[in-house]
């Protein structure tokens, strides 16, 4: 199977700072992949490399088998990649519905529109005229996910989606992510919450100091192997 997303020996920089070192990873169509590691090891830089917010100076990045250059967020969404960023980045001067409509601006065909997002997240419909930043943390994460889905992505990249959320909300997110994956959306889950990782992902990569140091299937894995790469 041809990978949907493929990073091959990618080296990425911020200015003169060399952050990613020969990173190779892939996500196949419909696959659920976790990228784990401690804070500061380069996980978000993988996202920024996809969005051309970090400078690639070696290796290749392909999506749907095509080498990508300079996608940026809008171009990535048009190509079929949506990102739920760390910190959610809800636009403060827009209502919930306006935030969602912004996510759909690329007008990719698919099942996700306001009606289907409101069916998935009824609280967003109830408060659709409320400023997005007036929501609770969990509701803002739902809005960020809904906004990303409005672009009808083939690949959904989730950067630390459980950060700062109560366990009951994380449980809800796990159910939602599994529902999306079962419907055929590929997931790249960048996360440190082992409960969320094991409930959603089927395969994993471990990062340390800007490099991939371990990878494999989650089925049958001793979770202590992953835990040691997350705890400080």
From TrEMBL:
InterPro entries: AAA+_ATPase, ABC_transporter-like_ATP-bd, ABC_transporter-like_CS, BCAA_Transport_ATP-bd_LivF, P-loop_NTPase. It comes from Aromatoleum anaerobium. GO terms for molecular function: ATP binding. Keywords: Amino-acid transport, ATP-binding, Cell membrane, Membrane, Nucleotide-binding, Transport. Residues 5-232 form the ABC transporter domain. The keyword Membrane applies. Belongs to the ABC transporter superfamily. SMART domains: AAA. This is ATP-binding cassette domain-containing protein. CDD domains: ABC_TM1139_LivF_branched (cd03224). It holds the Pfam family ABC_tran.
């Amino acid at each position: 199977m041809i990978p949907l997303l493929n990073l091959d020996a990618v080296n990425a920089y911020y200015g003169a700072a060399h952050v990613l070192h020969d990173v190779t990873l892939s996500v196949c169509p419909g696959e659920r992949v976790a990228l784990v590691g401690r804070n500061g090891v380069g996980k978000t830089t993988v996202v920024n490399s996809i969005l051309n917010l970090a400078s690639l100076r070696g290796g290749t990045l392909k999506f749907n088998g095509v080498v990508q250059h300079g996608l940026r967020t809008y171009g990535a969404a048009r190509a079929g990649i949506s990102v739920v960023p760390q910190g959610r980045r809800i636009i403060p001067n827009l209502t919930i519905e306006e935030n969602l409509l912004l996510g759909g601006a690329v007008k990719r065909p698919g099942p996700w529109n306001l009606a289907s997002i409101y069916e998935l997240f009824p609280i967003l419909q109830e408060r659709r005229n409320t400023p997005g930043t007036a929501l609770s943390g969990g509701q803002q994460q739902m809005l960020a996910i809904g906004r990303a889905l409005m672009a009808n992505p083939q690949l959904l990249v989730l950067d630390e989606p459980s950060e700062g959320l109560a366990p009951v909300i994380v449980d809800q997110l796990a159910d939602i992510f599994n529902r999306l994956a079962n419907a055929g959306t590929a997931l790249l889950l960048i996360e440190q919450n082992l409960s969320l990782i094991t409930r959603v992902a089927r395969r994993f990569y471990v990062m340390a100091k800007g490099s991939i140091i371990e990878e494999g299937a989650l089925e049958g894995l001793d979770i202590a192997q992953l835990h040691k790469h997350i705890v400080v």
